[in-house]
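Fold Annotation — chain and its backbone
Next Lines — sequence and tokenised fold

***
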Amino acid sequence: MTVNLNHIIDQVVKDKGVNREVLIEALESAVLSAANRKYRNTRDLEAHYNPEIGEVEVFEFVTVVDEVEDSYKQIQLEEAREADPDAQVGDELGMKIDASNFSRIAAQTAKQVIIQKVREAEREGVYKEFKDRVGELVNGIVRRYERGDLIIDLGKAEAILPHRQQVFRESYRQGDRVRAFISEVNLSTKGPQIVLSRTHEGLVAALFASEVPEIAEGIVELKGVSREPGSRSKIAVYSNDRDVDPVGACVGMRGSRVQNVVTELRGEKIDIIPWSSDIAQFACSALAPAEVTRVYVDKGERSLEIIVPDDQLSLAIGKKGQNVRLAAKLVNWRIDIKSESQARAAEEEKAEGAEVTGYVVDPLHEGEEEGAVQNPSSAAEAPAPPLSVDDSPEVVDDNDGDR
């Protein structure tokens, strides 16, 4: 090779972040491969980078013998001593091959290797940067659609917003700005794949963390999120400071903070619920704005039977069961909700072996709904305030004996 590689290597290492040793090893391997192709693998060759001349040198190794039987791998003693006066029979002698024999091939190979290593370094750099950012928000620009998936330009890299991670009622055009949640980062043969989401529950949590300083500072904790993307979300919050109202902190002055989140989610309704370690109290808050009269707790089965006034049943269940479904997801307990009249009927018929069931939602088995409530009305948008001592529902623990 006649090209001085020192400057090129220094520049690539500095500008592209390629490891010097890795680049040099790749150059040596590539030039050696080119030399073996040139000589059809008939010779014992080695390639070594010489930093003094900025060149990958190729050496042919031969064994010193009295009589040559293989001219490609052996050399006669007299000829060997012309190169090394101390040569003896049986010695391995390395002789530099004239680079002019394959300089063009070697130069092309070196160029290809440098380009390849630069690409690999860039891909690795992108992967290292984004793999630790899973769970964060990113802003990007829509570049194109590919089979329903959106390709988003993040500046340093492209990300994919899969069709299944898009909210059904949201639409985008090329050039639109989009804010999304990094759900995963994978390393494939084509480079890093950054997967975004607009449906992930983490998007709601991350948006509140960006809008509410008390969450970022750890004063207010976001204990849980349940979400039906594009329609409604419920979040549970808790304050580590008695002087800070967690719900008020998330709502903000005149609702400014929660409104910013709602705007980003394009009108998705959000209920902010005070979290409680008391599962009955927590479940009642999660069912807001419906009123609750009694709660039966079965800790062994992680099940709640909640009794509401007859005129509150539709409100508690919500449109198409949404309110109770989100509440069950949020508390992560099975919820069986009944009206007062259904509860009385159940008690009266219990002795006869009949079973009267209300509306049942199991967060681990979505869609398991029982009962005869048809077309329940939509729940109100604003969550109810925490229950006071005076209006707390009656709580019965089934594990303590029969009701």
